[in-house]
Amino acid sequence: MSPLAAREATEADAELLLAWRNDPRTREASRSSGVIALADHLRWLRGVLASPDRLLLVVSDDGGPVGTVRFDRERPGEWEVSITLAPASRGRGLSRAVLTLGERVLIEREDVRAILAAVHQDNAASAALFERAGYVESAPAEDGFRWLRKTRG
């Protein structure tokens, strides 16, 4: 496996990110499972890129982009994480490395006391990923999603 690198997303990533977001397996695991139109996605992406309370990273290896990880500040020191692997990158054992790299970038830039993850209750692979990364159950399941939390310190 070649080393991974993370960079902040830009508006030039819009079509790539939208294709990953609209992939059927990605939509199954999302809180919003509908297909997103390009105009709506661009509006969302511009808002994310302009917000000081959000960090959207594109993670690549030597072959190009393999996934994305997004952090949304929920309250001071607490961030929610969302990770998406490119459909072509699934099954390569990259999810843990993408998550770890994203966490490292966030911690270098921001005050982080805890990171939260909402995991669809039917998504055993994501639950296992976060649990292996040190996240623990933090709240009862709600609307079909489990809440996991990783505390720093």
UniProtKB/TrEMBL annotation:
The keyword Transcription does not apply. It comes from the Bacteria. InterPro entries: Acyl_CoA_acyltransferase, Bact_Acetyltransf, GNAT_dom. SUPFAM superfamilies: Acyl-CoA N-acyltransferases (Nat). The keyword Acyltransferase applies. Keywords: Acyltransferase, Transferase. GO terms for molecular function: acyltransferase activity, transferring groups other than amino-acyl groups. Residues 4-153 form the N-acetyltransferase domain. PANTHER family: AMINOALKYLPHOSPHONATE N-ACETYLTRANSFERASE-RELATED-RELATED. This is GNAT family N-acetyltransferase. The lineage of its organism: Bacteria, Bacillati, Actinomycetota, Actinomycetes, Pseudonocardiales.
